[in-house]
Amino acid sequence: MDDKLEKALDFSNFRQTLFNQQQTLKAKVINELLLTYQESIFKATPELIGLVKTIVDFNYPTVIIDDINENPVNIKSPKEFLENLIATYSKAKNSHYIGYAKIKKARSVKKLVNFE
Amino acid sequence: MPKLKKQDQSKNLSTLSKGAIFLAFNNKEINYVKLACLSASSVRKHLNLPCSLITDAGSLRHFEKLEYIRVDKTFENIIIDEKTDKDYKKDHFYSKYKIGNTDNIRKFYDTPYSTFNSQFKNLTKHNIYNLTPYDRTILFDVDFLVNNAILNLAFDVNSPIQLYRNAQTLKNTEPDHPTDKRLNDVSIPLCWSTVIYFNKSPMSKMFFDMWKHVKENYDYYQSVYKFPQGLYRTDFAVSISMHLLKGFNDCVDDVFAELPASPMKYMAYKDDIASVDKNGIVFFANEYGKEWNNILTYSEGENLHMMNKRAIDRHYNKLMELYV
C-alpha cells in the first residue's frame, strides 16, 4: 500500500478510536452526575445548580424541581440540596477532566485503549 | 394493606433488606453458575450487596465438581428451584420451540465467525418475586458486570420497578439489531430484563403476575405486538407487561422508572475481548454489516452487559481479578 495512504488510514483509525473513547468518557461522566435526594434521582447540571442557588439566595423555604423522570419533587431544604448538587457536580467533572487529560495525551490507538 | 405516611415510608426504607439475585441454569454449552460467580463478585465489590443464587441441583453439582471457586463464598443464599424441570415439562414451550430433541433453543454467536445452539432456560424468570429473600432486590442476568456503584441509587428511589429502556453498543451507538430497540419497526420500545430492581410491593407483584400472564399467552401477544416468532425472550414479555400496565401508553413514570445510568452498555455477541488489564477491558467492537471490521474500545468503570459468553469464559480468570 502507498505509504501516504497507509498513514492516512492509520490516522483515520486513531481518530475513530479517539472519538469513541471520548464518547465513552462523556457517558460515564453523565452517570456520575446523578444523585438521589428525597427518594428521587436528579442530574447535577449547571442549570439546576444555578436555579437552586437562585432559590437559596432569595430565601425560598422550598422549591419544586423535576427529577430525571420529569416527576415534580418538593425540595424541603434547598440549601442542603444545593450542597449535594455541587459536591456531585464537582466530583463528576473532576473525573471528566482527569479522563480527558489521559485521552488527550495518547498518540496511538494502543495508548488510547490501554492495550499493552 | 394499610397506607403508610410518606415519612413512615422513608423511615422504613433503611430497615428493609436489600440484595442481588441471580438465576443460573446450566446447559450443555454454557456454565451459567460459573458466570453468576463472576457477576456476583462484581456486585459484591462495587455495590456491596449480599448475593443469592437461584439454580437447580444439577447445575450446582456440575459446578462444584469442576470449579475451584467456592459458590458458598460468593453467595449467601443458594436457592434450589425444585420446580424448574417440572415447569419446563409442563410448559407448552417445552415442545413448541425445539430443534431436534432440545427445547427453547437460541443461536449464540461467539464473534462473527463461530456460532452454537444452546437451550435457553428463562421460562421461570418471573418467579423471582416469590423466590427472592430480600425486601428490595436487583435481579441481574449472569452476564452483567457491575463496574461502578451507580446502581445503588436505585435503592434510594421510591419506584417499585426500575429497569433499562435504552441500550448502547461498545461504539456508543444505538443497538444494531432492530429488535434490540423495538418489538418491531412500528411497535412499542424494548425494555431490557437484564437488570431489574423491584421491591415487595403490590405494584411489583402485579408486574410479575402480568409477566407470567404474557408468557402463558405468548402466541397471542406475538400476534398483537408482531415481534419475531420462535424463541421466548423475557425482554419482550417485560416490554409488553409494562405496556399493558401503563394502560397502553409509552411513558416513563414514578412506578415503572428507568434504572440510573441508562442507557445500558452492552458487548454484542459478535464483539470479542482483546485483553483485560488491572482496571478495565479492551474489546474488539465489531461493525454491523462489515464483519471483517473491528475497532478497539476500552471500558473502565462502566457497567457492561457481556452478551458473548464464550469470550467471558476465555478471559474468566483475568476478569475475576478485577473483582477480588
Tags for this model:
heterodimer; A: about 120 residues; alpha+beta; two-stranded antiparallel ribbon; 4 helices; elongated; B: about 325 residues; alpha/beta; Spore Coat Polysaccharide Biosynthesis Protein SpsA, Chain A; 7-stranded mixed β-sheet; 4-stranded mixed β-sheet; 12 helices; about 30% helix; about 25% strand; globular; disordered N terminus
How many domain modules of chain A? 1
Helix count of chain A equals: 4
Backbone structural class of chain A = alpha+beta
The CATH superfamily of chain B is known as: Spore Coat Polysaccharide Biosynthesis Protein SpsA, Chain A
Question: In words, what does this structure look like?
Answer:
The complex is a heterodimer of chains A (116) and B (324). The longest helix of chain A has 30 residues, at 3-32. Chain A has helices at 3-32, 46-57, 78-105, 109-112, and strands spanning 34-37, 40-43, 63-66, 72-75. Chain A has one domain. Chain A has a two-stranded antiparallel ribbon with strand order 1-2. The model of chain A has no long low-confidence stretch (mean pLDDT 92). With 116 residues, chain A is α+β, with helices and mostly antiparallel strands. Chain B is α/β, with parallel strands linked by helices and 324 residues long. Chain B has a single domain, classed as Spore Coat Polysaccharide Biosynthesis Protein SpsA, Chain A, CATH 3.90.550.10. Chain B contains 12 helices and 18 strands. Chain B has helices at 6-13, 32-47, 57-66, 71-74, 83-90, 93-96, 128-131, 202-216, 218-225, 234-245, 309-314, 316-321; strands at 18-24, 51-55, 77-80, 98-99, 102-103, 105-109, 115-119, 136-140, 144-145, 161-164, 167-168, 192-199, 256-258, 264-267, 272-276, 281-287, 290-299, 304-306. In chain B, the strands form 5 sheets. A 7-stranded mixed β-sheet of chain B has the order 3-2-1-8-12-10-13. In chain B, strands 9-18-14-11 form a 4-stranded mixed β-sheet. The longest helix of chain B is centred in the first third of the chain and has 16 residues, at 32-47. The A-B interface holds A 13, 16-17, 20-21, 23-24, 27-28, 31-32, 34-36, 39-41, 68-71, 109, 112-116 and B 10, 13, 148, 150, 153, 156-159, 168, 171-172, 252-254, 257-258, 260-261, 263, 265, 274-275, 277, 279-280, 282, 285, 295-302.
